[in-house]
Amino acid sequence: MKKPPQDLSQLLLQQGQLPSIAEKAELLLHLDHHVKQVITGPVSEQLKVANFRQGVLVIETSTAAWAARINFQKPKLLQQLQAETLPMLSAIEVKVNPSLKMYETKSKQAHNQISETAAAHIDALAEHIEGSLGQKLKRLAALASRSRQSK
Question: Domain 18-103 has what CATH class?
Fold first, then answer.
């Protein structure tokens, strides 16, 4: 007979390395959230807590410029983390990991609108150009005015 599948929460509680790995992952997520609360501004979006070992917190960022900005805030961060979360914290190490840039999610903005002024300039330009280019420019200017009317 086959064994029935075990619940994942039970597997995490069993002996072996899995419970300690799960506990460390949870600690790193908590530290990441706390560090991002202490460091404010756009810098907080550019960092990730990578590890905590032997009293050293390792923070990764995608570029050296962001690493420099984090390094400027390191004393404040170290002091606050020691007081609030990690009294055993002795140092913070900032590392550059360019592969983090792959995982950044940036919302792409659609720039498919033309201002009224730009449409007027395109229309004026189309008056002086003959052929298919002039016709296409006129349609572009007309499209800009139509999109404004539909809103």
Answer: alpha beta
